[in-house]
Amino acid sequence: MYTLLCNTQIITIITVLWVARMFHIVSFPGPSLQEFRKIFPLPIFYVFNLILGLGSTQKLNLPMYTVLRRFTLLLVAIGQALVLGTRETLSVNITLVMMVVGALIAALNDLAFDLMGYIFIFLTNLATAANGIYTKKMMGSDMNKYEIMFYNALLVLFPVLLLAYGTGDMEKAYQYDGWSNPYFLLNFFLSCVMAFILIYSTIMVTHLTSPLTLTVIGCLKNIIVTYGGMFIGGDYVYSLVNFIGINVSVAASLVYSFLKYKEQVQN
After folding, report:
1. DSSP state of 232
2. Listed residue (103, 139, 45, 133) closest to 219, CA to CA
3. Residue 45: how many CB atoms within 10 A of its CB?
4. 40: how many CB neighbours lie within 10 A of its CB?
5. Which are the contacts of 55, defined by CB distance < 8 A and separation ≥ 6?
6. pLDDT tens by residue, 105-146
7. Better pLDDT: 146 or 263
8. In this structure, are residues 84 and 95 in contact, taking their beta carbons and an 8 Å threshold?
9. What does pTM read for this prediction?
10. How many Cα atoms are found within 13 Å in the side-chain-facing hemisphere of 246?
11. What does the alpha-carbon distance between residue 73 and residue 206 come to, in Å, rounded to a whole number?
12. How far apart are alpha carbons 29 and 224 in whole angstroms?
């Protein structure tokens, strides 16, 4: 029911922002063809990220999924330089290279290798990098954060509804017998609220820092997933080289965070 949950979260974002606009809590322009043109191609990146992300999580074990996601860092760094004209320091670039090298070492000795999974994760990384970079670029134009959130959610709603129907999630949700359970309904409601907070926080981090910093924060968050996935799920196949690669990538993520923190303190 993952795609159906995505739909309810998207509807929550649209509803909360529209009600907040009605009560003059937030401000953004009303729907128009011009607004839909301005938000493109962001919704496309979001939908591709969702679809390809679903495919890659099904085909890869959790440790390899989280490590291979670090290739997004390199793509974001290159994209920032080309699209935004932002360049990182030498020490930061070295940590980025080490993250990618660690991921490569782990990938070269992945005993559970799945070609389609690797293709999906690479395309997911492209979509994630493009999404972060273009969000930052739009904030530098005449679009505010609420405008970006609202129109991105509005335009992805229909494609994600089609995805939920195509995957059979709507039918599964209809047949699910937990809708009368107050505890389930409370958690379902809280997941929708937290989705709004998460997306708002993501946009704020992108606005106040950079798409690269946001990506590294995501990698740090996934450290628990990386090591926990080795023991939970049963699909991780241990090898010494693969384990070393994962640890190199994780260690480089921590060093990056320390370097960016020092930059913030000095500035």
Report:
1. S
2. 103
3. 22
4. 13
5. 116, 117, 120
6. 776 665 566 777 778 888 888 888 888 888 878 776 677 888
7. 146
8. no
9. 0.68
10. 26
11. 14
12. 41
